Amino acid sequence: xxxxxxxxxxxxxxxxxxxxxxxxxxxxxxxxxxxxxxxxxxxxxxxxxxxxxxxxxxxxxxxxxxxxxxxxxxxxxxxxxxxxxxxxxxxxxxxxxxxxxxxxxxxxxxxxxxxxxxxxxxxxxxxxxxxxxxxxxxxxxxxxxxxxxxxxxxxxxxxxxxxxxxxxxxxxxxxxxxxxxxxxxxxxxxxxxxxxxxxxxxxxxxxxxxxxxxxxxxxxxxxxxxxxxxxxxxxxxxxxxxxxxxxxxxxxxxxxxxxxxxxxxxxxxxxxxxxxxxxxxxxxxxxxxxxxxxxxxxxxxxxxxxxxxxxxxxxxxxxxxxxxxxxxxxxxxxxxxx
Length: 338
Known about the structure:
By secondary structure, the protein is an alpha+beta fold. About 30% of the residues lie in helices and about 25% in strands. It has helices spanning about 10-20, 30-40, 70-85, 200-210, 225-230, 265-275, 285-290, 295-305, 310-320, 320-325, and strands at about 1-5, 10, 30, 95-100, 115-120, 130-135, 145-150, 155-160, 165-175, 195, 215-220, 225, 240, 245, 260, 265, 280, 285, 330-335.
């Protein structure tokens, strides 16, 4: 294994959790580090009781939900549009939001035709059955990923080791030929290319799809195609967010900062297809809303034509290419009742 010299301190609790995941040689894959940093029951970024989402100084990042109820209005309109395409009655469908914050859904306080709103926060058991709209917003990018580095004509996996003082050291080890992931790593990658694979995001999609439900899958997130990840992002996509500042300091503020990885729309879609879903191509958030909520957009713009209200400003943030319109994408999939 090759290690960097810069140590990163941890707490005794985090060190204990990481040591339990170490291989015989002490190597801890980055995916395991990310899982502990984000989801440890005691100190994980997403499991500890804290404010994470919003635009205030105490939060760490903001999402479309931070722009007011207009995002929920558009989500509801888009879901209804898809149900109408499949001649489905919205009143028969539960709206289930996976990864919701503090027991809320994006449709809380918004008039909607659905049977029930069901928030499923982090750590809540997934029990999906019957007719559903399964919705998520920035859920999949927060799942642990494996990180790889091209060195010469070989691939190395990134991870960490712990020393006697419970300090982390970034390290790498060769990818074993028997590792199933080896077949997915591009053989034509240039020396120094960094590839971050969102394996847990794909696994989560497969878990969601394996449940006995039918209806609409709707996910908003940021991601790329397999070709973009494997050939057009040479510095990888994993980033840290701490108090609204993006950085590559992945091992600072462990448990107190967000870690994200771009998802792969191709492999996530494949996980859904294997479970019988018909999957649409991922669209930019801007294109998705224009395609699926045209009448709602026209109504909002007409109502707000004479003023720059918070609602209109939020709408512009959601759609404008330089804001969230191109940064985020939306993926839809549909499965008929068996």
